[in-house]
Protein: Guanine deaminase
Organism: Roseinatronobacter monicus
Amino acid sequence: MDRKIIRARLLTFLREPQTPDDTDSFRYFEDGGVLIEGGQITALDDFDRIDPAGATLIDHRPHLVMPGFIDTHLHFPQMQVIASWAAELLDWLNDYTFPEETRYSDPALCATMAKAFLDRLTEHGTTTAVAYGSVHATSAEALFSEAHARDMRLITGKVMMDRNAPAALCDTPQSSYDDSKALIERWHGAGRLSYAITPRFAITSTPAQMDAAQALAAEHPDCYIQTHLSENHAEIALSCQLHPEAVDYTDIYARYGLLRANSLLGHAIHLSDREIGALAEAGAKPVFCPTSNLYLGSGLFDDARLRAAGLTNAIATDIGGGTSYSMLQTLAEGYKVLQLNRQRLHPFRAFHWITRGNAVALGLQDQIGTLDAGTEADLVVLDAHATPAMALRMERARNLMDELFTLQVMGDDRAVVQTYVAGRAQKATAPASA
Ligand code: GUN
Ligand code: ZN
C-alpha cells in the first residue's frame, strides 16, 4: 500500500474555539508528521514519533498543513458568470446566470467544465464541495464522474426548476423527480460522493414540483437537501406571493418537508424570529456566503443571532454570485460582514469554520475536516509569506494567531502551496523538497 509521511507544521481542531485564547480547542505541532496510507490518515504526531518504515517522506517545512477546506455552497455552471454587472439578485439571475446555465445541456461542455471546476477548487485549497448543477442531469453526471475519477469528496445534485426561467432551463415535476432519482441511484454513496436534492428556490418551483422534492426527500433521508432562502427583499416578496399558503419564506420549505438536519439553506439573511425558531427546531443549516452577499448587495448575514438560537452556520463561496473560489478570501469578507454587525470573527474560529466546522454542518466530521487518524487524507499546505505584501506583514507576526489572520485577510490561491485529495497531490508544482 502507498505509504507517505507529510512533515510540516500542523494545525487541526478538536472543537470550535470559543475565544482567541482557547488553545485547548486545537492541536498544533511545530514539527509534525501525518502518515497517509491508502488515502486515509493513519497517524498524526510529532514527526519523530511517526514510524518511517517503508514511507515516502514529503517535507513541507516551513509551511503550515491543515485539513483541506470545505465549500458548502457554490454553483458548477456559474464559473463564467463571476464578475457579471447586475443591480441585484433577480436581475443577475435573469440577465446572466440563467442564459449561461442553458449551455450545460451539452455533455461535452459539462465534461470539460467539470475538470476546470475541480481544478479551480483544489488550486484554492478546497477538497470538498457542495455544488449545484444546472437543471440538466448531464451537469451532475459530469461532476460526479470527474470527482469519482479523482477520489474527491463531493456533494451535488441537478437543480429542480419548472417556472420563472427560460424554457430551455425548465424541467417538469415528473422529469425532475425521475432525473434526480436516477442520479441518486447511480451516485449517492458511490465512493466519496453524496447526492443533494436541489430545488433551486421557491420562485422557480411550482407546488407540484415542491411535492416531487418532498417525495424525493422522504424516500432518501440520507440525501442532503440544498436550496436558497431569504437572500434578498424582492426574492422574499415574490416567493411569498407565489406560495400564499405559507406564513413566511421559511414556511414554504417547511410545508414541503424540506427542513431537516441535512438541509443547507444558502444565504438565510433576512429572517424573522419565527423563521429562525423553525430552522433551529429542524436543525437545518444556514449557509453564509459573504463575497456573494456583498457583491449582489443582498445584506449582512447575522451570524451571532442565528448561533444564539442554537443554529450551526456553514460558510461558502457561492460561486458565481460569489467572487472568489478561495475560502481564505471568503473568510476575509466574512470578517468584514461580521464587523459591520459589530461581531468579531477571530482567526482560530475562522479556520475551524472552513475545516471542521463545515464538516460538522455536513455531519461529516468523522470523515473530513480534521487531521485525525482514521479520517480521509484531504490536506492543504499554506504559506503565509506567499506574496511580497504578505511576507512584509509576516515580519511583524508574533504568533500562530497572527499568521492565521494574515492568511485569512490577505490569502488566496497564491498561499496554497499544495493540496492533497485522498492523499494525492493535486498541484503540478513539486513540493519544497522530498
Ligand atoms: N437564488 C436562486 N438561484 C440562485 C443562484 O444561482 N445564486 C444565488 N446567489 N442565489 C440564487
Ligand atoms: Zn447559490
Remarks:
- The longest strand covers residues 26-37.
